[in-house]
Structure formats: C-alpha cells, structure tokens
Write a structure and sequence with these properties.
two-stranded antiparallel sheet, 10% strand, alpha+beta, 60 residues, binds zinc ion
Amino acid sequence: MPHVTCPTCSAPTPWQGNTHRPFCSLSCRLIDLGGWLDERYRVPAETPDEPPPPDDDDVS
Ligand SMILES: [Zn+2]
C-alpha cells in the first residue's frame, strides 16, 4: 500500500483510506491550513496609513 509523508509532522501516512491525506490526521491538516491562511491574509506593512480624501463636500 502506498504511503505519503505528512507535510506537517513528516510521519509516514497511508494513502488509501486516509480521509485527511496527504496529512496523517485532522490536526495536521488544520495546522497546515492555518499556516497557509496566515501566509495568504498577511497584510504587508508597507501600506501608508493615510486617511481617505474628504469627498463629501461637493454633494449637492
Ligand atoms: Zn501529521
């Protein structure tokens, strides 16, 4: 039976019948997902913190 290596804990994990493949368990799956989301939604700190221009003066 083929085995894969869990990307989170590097444990040898059976491929067939594994609901959480390529992870060995739900915990490792969530850990990897959490890290991925953290990378994705990380806001770059180089954005200048300036207020939006006032555009409500010419509303007639
Ligand atoms: Zn694992």
